[in-house]
Design goal:
It is built from 14 helices and 12 strands. By secondary structure, the protein is of the alpha/beta class.
Length: about 400
């Protein structure tokens, strides 16, 4: 492929990242990609929801905006399908046409729908449609009628997908199992983290025994963490837990902690940058019931934070050779036992174990590699489109002979 200013497939690309909520690991992923792509000379823009994320999302988007030649577009997006989705699709189509975008990259289930279903306006070539799932619908109640409906929708949407850029082998496997093998480009592009994140965290003066960082909802396994904490305290370990995050089940979780007699043991705080929080706890606990490739595990492992996590999703990919240390989900007894073992471990042995995990993560989860692999995926999708045979001519539209 010869690069030229007239070739829509030639870098620099004009990329629109489309997703719903500017929160959590998905937003971090887009934020990192946007910065990397802009630094590589590409024009980048963001389209996301206007009603989630609060002041923190607004601040992060404002900090990112100098890197975004194609700007930030925020408009109301609902989590579940509604007629308002048609208006969102129309806005995305108009923005893509006005900005000359040649890559629409959808993130998460809703962003994937928007990026792949938005119509093409104008006479130019259609942009390629890339999709990065982040767990979402693939993990939602497998075996149920609703999950089958979601996977049926993914099967139809796959027809409008030029590149699947899965962030974990786990989600790629789920796609193959529930949607079927893809006829389009499929790549595993693991989340990556920056070299600075491998610096150890300096412990704070006042610390909690346990940390939880993430969404406050039952699907993250928080009830099982509370049960494990209660059993450890009943066994004579007066442990404390700092929970940092927000979510739809926040009030229910607070009430559950109070009903379990844990009011004085559990402290709740809103979302905030992870490294200062890691400094305030001895052990991070990730009790999730389902995940893709969570940044909180990558970030904690890189910083050599003592860490306990469940054996779900892509977490074993992060732990690598140490995956046998993961605990089964939905098992508060196993979670409590794992916490007790880390607490009782000799400090030198604990330090060596988590230093080894950090070094393993360093070799396999590079932010620079992530950015390069995504751009390589775009380029491969353009090449595949160029190499595809032309669409068949319908009999009624066949050119007339002269």
């Amino acid at each position: 492929m010869v690069a030229s200013a007239l070739d829509p497939a030639a870098p620099p690309y004009r990329i629109l990242h489309v997703f719903r909520a500017p929160v959590g690991g998905l937003f971090r992923h887009v934020n990192d990609l946007a910065r990397l792509q802009a630094a590589s000379g590409h024009a980048v823009g963001i389209i996301c929801d206007a009603s989630t994320g609060g002041e923190r999302a607004a601040r992060q988007l404002a900090e990112l905006e100098p890197c975004l030649a194609l700007g930030v577009t925020r408009l109301p997006m609902r989590r579940n399908p509604t007629p308002s989705d048609l208006a969102v699709l129309a806005v995305i189509a108009r923005r893509a046409a006005a900005l000359g975008a040649n890559v629409l990259h959808g993130h998460g289930a809703k962003g994937g729908v928007y990026a792949r279903l938005s119509p093409v306006l104008g006479r130019g070539p259609a942009p390629i449609r890339a999709y990065t799932p982040h767990g979402g619908s693939y993990n939602y109640r497998p075996g149920t009628a609703l999950h089958r409906l979601y996977m049926g929708a993914e099967r139809l949407l796959s027809l409008r997908t030029d590149a699947f850029l899965f962030e974990s082998e786990y989600v790629a496997g789920r796609h193959a199992a529930y949607v079927g093998p893809s006829r389009h480009l499929t790549r595993i592009v693991h989340n990556g983290i920056a070299e600075a994140e491998f610096e150890p965290v300096e412990p704070a003066a006042e610390r909690h025994d346990l940390l939880y960082i993430g969404e406050l909802r039952d699907a993250k396994g928080v009830p099982f963490l509370l049960e494990a904490l209660a059993s450890l305290r009943a066994a004579g370990r007066p442990l404390t837990l700092l929970m940092v995050g927000s979510g739809p089940d926040a009030e229910i979780i607070r009430e559950r902690a109070q009903a379990m007699g844990l009011s004085e043991a559990v402290t709740f705080e809103p979302p905030q940058p992870i490294r200062p929080v890691l400094a305030r706890g001895d052990i991070l606990v990730v009790p999730s019931l389902a995940e893709s490739l969570p940044y909180v595990v990558l970030e904690a492992a890189a910083a050599r934070q003592p860490l306990i996590a469940t054996n779900v999703g892509g977490i074993p990919e992060i732990f690598g050779a140490a995956a046998s240390e993961l605990v089964p989900p939905r098992d508060p007894g196993a979670l409590a036992g794992a916490i007790a073992r880390v607490l009782d471990e000799a400090p030198d042995q604990r330090r060596a174990r988590f230093c080894a995990l950090s070094e393993s993560v360093r070799t396999r989860f590079s932010m620079t590699r992530m950015g390069a692999d995504v751009l390589s995926g775009y380029a491969a999708a353009f090449r595949a489109r160029e190499a595809a045979p032309p669409a068949p001519v319908l009999a009624g539209n066949a050119p007339k002979s002269t």
